[in-house]
Amino acid sequence: MSNLAVLPIIIPLISGIILAFFHKKVTVSRWLTRILTIGNLGLVSYITWIVFNEGSIILETGGWEAPYGIILVADPLAITLVLTTNIVATACAFYASHSMNIKEETHYFYAFFFFLITGVSGAFLTGDLFNLFVFFEVLLMASYALIVLGGGKVQLRESIKYVLINLFSSVLFVTAVAFLYSVVGTVNMAHIAERVQEVDQKGILTTIAVLLFFVFATKAALFPLYYWMPKSYIVPNPVVSALFGALLTKVGIYSILRVFSLIFVYKLDLTHHAFIWFAGLSMIFGIIGALSTSNIKLIVAYNIIPAIGFIIMGIGVFNQDAMSGAVYYLVHDMIIKCALFLLVGTIAYVAGTSDLRKFSGLIHYYPVLGWLLFVSAFILAGVPPFSGFIGKLLLLKGALTNDEIVIVVLGLLSSLLILYSIMKIFIQGFWGEKDESFVKKPTKGFVGPVVFLLAFSVILGIGAEFIYPSIDTISTYLLDPEVYIDSVLKE
Amino acid sequence: MIFTVLIPLLLACFVPLISKLKDKIHTGIFIFFIPFVIFLYYIQFVGSDFTTMKQTINWIPSLGVNFNFYLDGLSLLFVLLISGIGALVVLYSIYYLGKDERLGHFYVYLLMFMAAMLGVVLSDNIYVLYTFWELTSISSFLLIGYWHFNERSRYGALKSMLITVFGGLSMFGAFILLSVITDTTSIQSMIEQKDIILNSTYLPFILVLLLLGAFTKSAQFPFHIWLPDAMEAPTPVSAYLHSATMVKAGLFLVARFSPIFSSYEWFFIIVSIVGIITLCWGSYMAVRQTDLKAILAFSTISQLGMIMAMLGFGTDLAIYAAVFHILNHATFKGSLFMVAGIVDHETGTRDIRKLGGLLTFMPMTATLALFGTFSMAGIPLPFLNGFYSKELFFDSSIHLTSNGLSSFAEFLVQVIPYLAVFGSIFTFVYSMYFFFGVFGGKNQLSLLPKKPHEAPIGMLISPIILVLGVIVIGLFPNLVNGTFLAHAADAVKGTVAEELHILFWHGWKTPLIMSLTVVGIGIVLTLTRKKWAGVYRFIPGKLSLFKLYDIVLEKLNSVSKGITKQYMTGSLRLYVAIILGVTLTLTFITMFATGGVTIQFDNLADVRVIEVSVVFIMIVAAIGTIFARNNVAIILIAGVVGYGVAVLFVIYRAPDLALTQLVIETVSVVLFLLCFYHMPKLRKRDETKSSKSINIIISVGFGALMTIIGISAHSSKWFDSIADYFIETSYKLGGGHNIVNVILVDMRGFDTLFEITVLGIAALAIFSLVKLKKNKEAE
Predict the structure, then answer these.
(1) pTM for this one?
(2) Which residue of B has its CA nearest to A362?
(3) Cβ A206–B58 below 8 Å, yes or no?
């Protein structure tokens, strides 16, 4: 039974290995990938159901008991995010064959794709800080492979920055883990949490916590550490951008969420209060970035930053509503960011350019694409009744309960500008006169995955009554580290 | 009740299907029945024995977001306006929009709007209200941009959306605050707990945020600037959304919440001032316009300001006058918009400079316009409803009490009557300007794109019905008084007031004298309009809020471009410097703030000469890499550091680690040398002194930081390490004497599995990169 916890990691790993052998047979690869992602999605849904009904699944790998061996913890938060990851992955699996050329596909794209999912799922599920580092390496290595796939000049130029900065933060990560191990003598997260609590997070511990925060914040593309992100996210193929935008920064923010709700929660005035500042600045600068460009892909890439701001604000406020909001927003943002990256990728493909100044009137040829973008803009901005609204409502309510009025005002203002930044694409790119000389490219297969994702956004909003209680459970759980510690250490 | 909201939404889904038949039957004919039936449904509630109704359907009960529908006098008034005017507008649009238009789109948006607007006025739940509120903004955006191939339509659509969504969001902020304070999401429960709200420290915030929502939606000064540009929408839309209904949502909001805030002095001050300024500014600016719809747009702004001001006054009389005028304004302004549409349709222009003398060509339209404009001007005639509410407005403006108010409020009470008269004079002037400019004077047929003739009867039906409304209410004001206006006013006040009787003749009292003053000065100003029109060159002159919006939007884009260019230079060195700099500064601050530095030497091994010398060599080598100018040299010197580490491992008796380190070091040095053979030589960087010194500070600082944390971490060993367990069980449970091996392949084998995966991925990645490149070259 407890072996279920490892399946979301092992299945993509094995899938990736199998796909590496079939790399030349592109039709087989495509169908195999689709079948495997759907199968995995089904399985993860089942595991999620079990976790929410019967409690967290704990797996002590190799039979080495906690806290000595590596522990996998499929708790409500982790499994929810793994489920979301698999939803995103399924959409991308179906989109990939349309946006990639056969050459890219046969050069192990599908293998790297599965390795990325392996890394992401592993990062969510592990209960061991050093193992988290290992999974970071897995997902980063897969992302290095994906970002250079195709080998364009711009790709190589931007990816070198991406690789170097991530490599650096990995070094810092492992150093911070070493420091922490030196103080508390363990790397099991529950055990660390227990020991940090015992000494009330005194002495050097908060400093190490801050160091870890910066490691994760660099990966999460938080202000002012996001410089590497926007341009490197838009150079690869749209489906890769979508995977990155939906998953990579989110692993960073998840790590902050986990570490600063489970372990370092005894100096809230110092650490969490500062998060709110980071949140505000991320919102401001992210949206400034999104407004600064007429490259539609870059607009979406910059929009990652304020979203991260919203989530970190929830962690900073650290009460029931705010944490629920942060988790809700995290799930929402993974889905909508993926959809948006796929959408703008498609738009850039049909328009032949990603420069907004060079095309208009697309709605005459692609009405469906236009309306999907239109709806996505409102979902992203948090307009009811879609998913973004529920998250934003909870976040702002939580913040106001703690009298954080400034961040609320910033959050509301940035919502308006987020809407504006995406709506610009609709108004300038889709509205306008019909260009009679335009040659229409077929978009069969591009739209399905986006509709699939947006359906989830709508369900997360309109059907919030069914989802919210689960998120509320997660939030209650996160605010009480004892539950996690007890479930892992079984004392 | 809920079905009246949901049915238009559901039916909107079928409109695209119906619109396929548009060549045979105009889509609007089907649509007409929706608002008409809704109107018939709600008309049954009109009557003196009206009682409020509630209906609840759960949506997200755990968040308190439910469809709590609530029908009281105020919502009934709005519901009737929305459905009634809606039916007339759809009827009118059948003749206005030809079958070559995208009718499917038009009616989907229109139905969406109708449902949203009904939702706004019927929702008792703040979040559902907000949902519908945003939906009205969205549908309005789509309707303004209906002819999106026009640049002006796109501009107007974006502007209206930005301003109204801005307001919507700030209203949302107010709603969250209210729900946090009162712990409820129902407006009626909030009204019951108004003392808690009035005593809250957040009261000013709530009021300002809420009013921002109302003012932006109802186009109050200085947010009125979106309304004139919204006139790019097809005229039926202007008549419906931008005159009769949507722009009144802001008034509705203020009215809905006025039972809570009416006793708060700042509510009176802000709402009255903004309202009265809007009244004056709107009517003053209307006279300057040359486009018929622009005149009507400013006129709408001004009239909305007047109603807003009355809601701010908050006296029984003022509130009654406000709801009365909401009804009256819908009748005469709706008909005038339709008239403007007819004129546009039949002559091909809306430019008042080209129009004139149309009375003989379009007698029916002219008659309708006559009633509409004269009612709007408030001319004292017993068959014009506009006069009654205008008279009540004057009456309420002179009966404001300043008891117990601050001196500023007292001053306000003194000047309001004068401003009311001032605004009304210009209302008179633009009404006359509109009517005589179009229908009076000489005709200029040569300037018109089309030869004018009377509109088809179908187009005239709707304005005729509205004008009949003007006359009937004018003749029998008490027909609407007790039956539903009184209920509406009671809902706004939150109490049941004594019955008011509306009379045409009050006797020679101040309000009548004010009205006559307005007419007198108005006539003079109308006749001499051309002489004083130069005043617009000074007020507003070049200062224009319209330009301000353009500048703000332009700056938003250009400034953000500037800022982003500043730091997104693409320079990796800069990025790393910023990341390190921030991490360094904040981590140091944390360290000192929490007293993190602990340095103890008591649990350290003795330091011998050999260790010191190895470390010394390593330090020298590390520093050497910075100064070396040759690729190969750098690699070799860096190798020295690595081998030094290996030596240290040997000294501390970890031969396996030492071996690993040696292998890694050797392989990487060789690899680097192989790669660097193909790479360009290092060049000296052109750097300014300051950036160089900043970089030095950052790198030295970071080194120092890591060292201090390392030492402190080592000095803070408060717990037993789990390593002891590994030592104990390595052989017992793992079956191996080499602990490191057991850890790697068994205890933490899971790590190792994925480290191997990492290497595998790396190999595959390099392989694919090289091969793809080769394939490319082969082509």
Answers:
(1) 0.94
(2) B149
(3) no
